[in-house]
Design brief:
By secondary structure, the chain is mostly helical. 84% of the residues lie in helices and 0% in strands. The chain is flat.
Amino acid sequence: PVLRLLEAQLQEQRREHEEEVEALRKEMDLMQEELEKQQQAFLQTLQLPPEAQVEFGLQREITRLTDENLDLKELLEKLEKNEKKLKKQLKIYRKKVQDFEAFQATVPAEWRSHEGNMQVAVQRKEKDFQGMLEYYKEDEPRLIRNLIT
């Protein structure tokens, strides 16, 4: 059984290696094609008069900069989306903190003496447990208040 297991692992590794080699060959072929296109364009450029060579070089640089600009715009859009998401999360967390502070203010004085115990409970890692009660995350402080009262 151990020999079969090792043989199966070896075959799996061989298959993965072959797939990786094939992917690298495809990538190499694409790069070869791109190199040939660039060489062809370069040879055509050399046959042009000097003014046309400059213009062709400028056109290539404009194309490169345009592509780079589009990539940067995509990155900017992605970062803006992430910023909006983070701002939304920050707003939710601020509301939770405000609700918790409001809850702390309503806690009777005798409970405050056990504040150290509550701190330990707050420091533990939060886990999401699913139960039979369905509610929105924003309504959690109000639900807790109602349960306590």
